[in-house]
From TrEMBL:
Annotated TM spans: none
Name assigned to this protein: Helix-turn-helix transcriptional regulator
PANTHER family the UniProt entry points to: HTH-TYPE TRANSCRIPTIONAL REGULATOR NIMR, TRANSCRIPTIONAL REGULATOR-RELATED
Pfam families in alphabetical order: AraC_binding, HTH_18
Domain HTH araC/xylS-type: 153-253
PROSITE patterns: HTH_ARAC_FAMILY_2
Keywords per UniProt: Activator, DNA-binding, Transcription, Transcription regulation
Amino acid sequence: MKRTADLPVCPPPVVGFADRYTDGFVDTYHRHDRAQLSLFLGGTVTVSALGQSFVLGTGQGLWLPANTLHQAECRTDLTFQVVYVDPGLTEAADLPCKMFDVSSLMRGLVDEIIAMQYEFVMDERMTAIARLLVDEIRRAAPIMNRLIFPADQRLLRVCMAIVAQPGDCRDIDHWAREAGMARRTFTRLFHLEMGMGFAAWRRRVRVIEAASRIAAGQPVSEVAFELGYENAGSFSTMFHRTFGMSPRALRATTLTSGP
């Protein structure tokens, strides 16, 4: 397992490596003084940062600006590539946190950077590669399958309990009591902080969790049952509405797009 501490004392403006993490590994909250680009070649992972949780799978990438506090939790064995980008690289200075599908060009550019190891001169060619990589990240359309968490600690406590047990079917009255609020106060504050109702947010938790489980190989019908759906049909409808594909299409994509 590689760490940023393994890098040279004075690395080039862009430097990277490939690595693997095992199922269940948690890289606890930390930050880097450089921006971090992660490309996921196999497996699924949940990355928490900036009050959001991103569930990423094979063929997806995540850009984190420099000094972003974040944590990664592996849902399966994980194969990935990481490139650290000096914030002094002008093109990368204003890029926000973003999750996206990795283009073949981006993958090739990252391969070139990693192939250089750590000791190389940032000549004209490598500068062009770095600038083109950042431009590809900027141009990539963001993927929206992320979870947002509230600042209010009472609501946060409820949200974390639901994330821990996404198949829990207890109604909104129960969760309002857990938060120590009247139902009307709970629903109003939840919508104010989250930009959506409680039921919509919980559905989002379930389908994102479902995507992670399906990508890891769990049967679709089993996932639907465990996440509180009465039948696979209603689950598939909700899944397609969120991701634009059926659960089985996601399974097929995962099986054919390994590292």
